[in-house]
Amino acid sequence: MTDLSGRVALVTGGTRGIGLATAKALAEAGATVVLTGRDESRAKEAAAAAGASAGLALDVTDAKAVSTLVRGVAKEHGKLDIVVANAGIMEDALLGMIKEDLVDTTLSTNVAGTLHTVQAAARAMMRKKTGAIVVLASIVGEYGSAGQTVYAASKAAVANIARSAAKELGRSGIRVNAVAPGVIDTDLTAGLAEDAKADNIARTPLARLGAAEDVAKAIRFLVSDEASFVTGQVLGVDGGLVL
Ligand code: NAI
């Protein structure tokens, strides 16, 4: 089992789904984990459920709040080793139906929110010249998806935040990678029609939807020393769906 004892980790959007499973997986591997959620009481409840040391309120669209929180966590624990920029939203809209506020909320949460988190993480990790960051891309960001142009564009941007930050931060000992999940069974995909889920399963070589824990295990690998020479990668966690 991956050993993360002595590491300090931060997971955004950790109150449910992939974020909660990741917080749990990192805590089980021995890391001291801080998770965040938009609602403080839900963040505290999730922290207790995940075995995390704290649950804090954070909206990742607020750059100043992200910077203050990340600096505070690093100060309290003396360092910050791992950051998982997981918070994200998905709303479908066909091209003709895309409204400006959907563009704004999707880009400000998925792109700017991830960017704020990576920037703050890099600042906190730079001093110790070590750290691992993972961001949440998506297979649709790599291959596109009808009815998901805005979301797919946002996730393509997220993948390129990982690639660019990896190039910039490598010499500071900081690795940056992305995971690109397929269809994972969480609240985000709960609205998918049953026939769409069945169609995805039929096209997936591993013949099932993903679980949040499947993604959490891939993230745990990427932030661990097992991935010590891996940076700038976008790791598919999709059961082979895109093959
Ligand atoms: P989810 O909807 O279950 O959880 C998303 C989390 O992000 C929630 O805790 C939510 O409160 C938080 N969040 C949303 N906006 C926020 C904001 N402005 N500030 C702070 N927190 C915010 O979704 P799920 O499935 O766990 O997704 C996690 C990440 O994985 C997202 O970035 C999503 O785009 C990505 N992903 C999910 C896939 C899936 O099939 N479930 C597939 C590919 C990527």
TrEMBL record:
Which PROSITE patterns is this protein grouped with? ADH_SHORT
List the Pfam families hit by this protein, alphabetically.
Answer: adh_short_C2
Which InterPro entries would you find in this protein's record? KR_dom, NAD(P)-bd_dom_sf, Sc_DH/Rdtase_CS, SDR_fam
What Gene3D superfamilies does its record include?
A: NAD(P)-binding Rossmann-like Domain
The residue ranges of the Ketoreductase domain are: 7-182
Q: Does the keyword Transport apply?
A: no
- GO MF terms, alphabetically ordered: oxidoreductase activity, acting on the CH-OH group of donors, NAD or NADP as acceptor
Recite the UniProt keywords alphabetically.
Oxidoreductase
Q: Where in this chain does the entry annotate a coiled-coil region?
A: none
Family (UniProt): Belongs to the short-chain dehydrogenases/reductases (SDR) family.
This chain's protein is named 3-oxoacyl-[acyl-carrier protein] reductase
